[in-house]
Design brief:
Layout: H1 8-21, H2 26-39, H3 44-73, H4 81-84, H5 91-104, E1 110-113, H6 120-130, E2 138-142, H7 148-156, H8 174-177, E3 182-186, H9 193-203, E4 207-208, E5 217-218, E6 222-227, H10 231-236, H11 242-248, E7 252-254, H12 264-280, E8 286-287, H13 289-297, H14 303-317, E9 322-323, H15 341-359, H16 364-371, H17 375-386
Parallel strand pairs: 1-6, 1-7, 2-3, 3-6, 8-9
Antiparallel strand pairs: 4-5
Helix pairs in contact: 1-2, 5-6, 9-11, 12-14, 15-16, 16-17
Length: 388
């Protein structure tokens, strides 16, 4: 078979394609160049062998390419869905996201508030990821999910063999597991007062004795905490220590609910549809007008978590490229019943006049003066409202 030498221009084009497609290091580029030289002047069988060797090395090159590209997809964001959704057109949410870097740079405790599903635990992880402690452990515990008699042991540990629990950390306790890193106390409002005192000592740099010992230990860890409850009300009710609250609330972030984020809802929902479609390999691209109207009317008590759940289920079961309100399981009984404008005006007028009459002791003349209309006009309005 006749040999055909690769032209210089073809070689350059191939090298450029390699460099553009695979951002490999210099050694790998040199290997690619050497491979091209070997291709020149070889028989077909030898050329096939060289290509086979190159194909075998392709998966490793693709793995490296994927790793390098991932650094550019979201250079300032975590991969968590709730953290990504903090970037929005909502001024309040954008302010929170801008504050994350400043807060992460400190070692101070941080207190996160907001309704369930707004992304408090995800934001806590993001604060840790951006902090100087990012190479140390991030440990999370749901204080409401651990029985009171076990919570202190889970946090501070116990001597080996003292209890047949805490096997995950071998009796060391989560505070020691998080040494040098971050401990996230989710739903800290459920923490008993006695343990709150121990946590206060940790926040202040003091020492606490593990369960079953009398020897205090110091814990080097940053404390992040969250709750869905009104902690100030709990302080007033003496259910939460005032001193611990003020130490935690020095840096306080409140995550807005989905209802408070206005036009963000549709932007977030569209992003979730795209991600769900990729994961489920579904040909779904958006929402019908009826679905959009239903989403805007719904109150979303579960916030981002509920929105993600409904969209993921809808994309998985959808029969067309656009999700409907039925796909999202947003039936009419879940939505507020909105009246036509003229009917709403009549209802408001009826209730307002009724309230004024009650305040005026059912004295129509006095009520008319308060309403700044003639007594005859008031009677006419009442008669008209009674007939509609």
């Amino acid at each position: 078979m006749a040999r055909e030498e690769m032209s210089s221009s073809a070689k350059k084009r191939l090298l450029r394609l390699v460099r553009e497609s695979f951002p490999l290091d210099q050694i790998q580029i040199s290997a690619a160049e050497e491979g091209i030289k070997r291709l020149q002047g070889r028989e077909a069988s030898e050329t096939a062998a060289v290509l086979e060797d190159s194909i075998e090395q392709l998966p490793q090159a693709l793995d490296q390419l994927e790793a390098e590209l991932s650094q550019y997809e979201q250079p300032q964001e975590a991969n968590d869905v709730y953290v990504r959704e903090l970037i929005s057109s909502s001024p309040a949410t954008r302010t929170i996201y801008r504050l994350v870097d400043k807060i992460a740079a400190t070692n101070a405790p941080v207190f996160l508030t907001g309704e369930t599903g707004t992304g408090k635990s995800s934001l806590a992880r993001e604060i840790h990821r951006r902090s100087r402690r990012s190479d140390k452990p991030f440990v999370s515990i749901d204080c409401a999910a651990i029985p009171e008699e076990l919570l202190k042991t889970e946090l501070f540990g116990h001597p080996e063999g003292t209890f047949a629990i805490n096997r995950a950390v071998g009796g060391r306790g989560l505070l020691r597991e998080a040494a040098g890193g971050t401990l996230f106390l989710d739903e800290i409002s459920a923490m008993p007062l006695a343990i709150q005192e121990d946590i206060l000592r940790v926040v202040e740099g003091g020492a606490v004795a593990p369960v079953g010992t009398t020897q205090p230990q110091a814990f080097s860890v940053r404390i992040l905490a969250s709750t869905v409850r009104d902690l100030e009300a709990q302080v007033k009710s003496r259910l939460f220590r005032k001193d611990l609250y003020y130490r935690l609330a020095a840096l306080k972030l409140h995550l807005p609910s989905l209802r408070e984020r206005g036009d963000d809802l549709l932007m977030i929902a569209q992003n979730m549809v795209r991600r769900a479609a990729r994961v489920l390999l579904a040909d779904v691209r958006g929402f019908t007008p009826e679905a959009i109207a239903a989403m805007q009317l719904y109150s979303w008590p579960g916030n981002l978590r509920e929105l993600e759940n409904r969209i993921m289920c809808a994309v998985g079961l959808a029969e067309g490229p656009l999700l409907t309100d039925a796909d999202l399981r947003l039936s009419a009984d879940l939505l507020p019943q909105l009246l036509p404008l003229d009917q709403a005006n009549r209802q408001f007028e009826r209730e307002y006049i009724k309230e004024v009459l009650t305040l005026c002791g059912e004295n129509h003349a006095k009520a008319a003066r308060v309403l700044r209309i003639a007594s005859g006009s008031l009677r006419q309005r009442l008669a008209k409202l009674a007939s509609t």
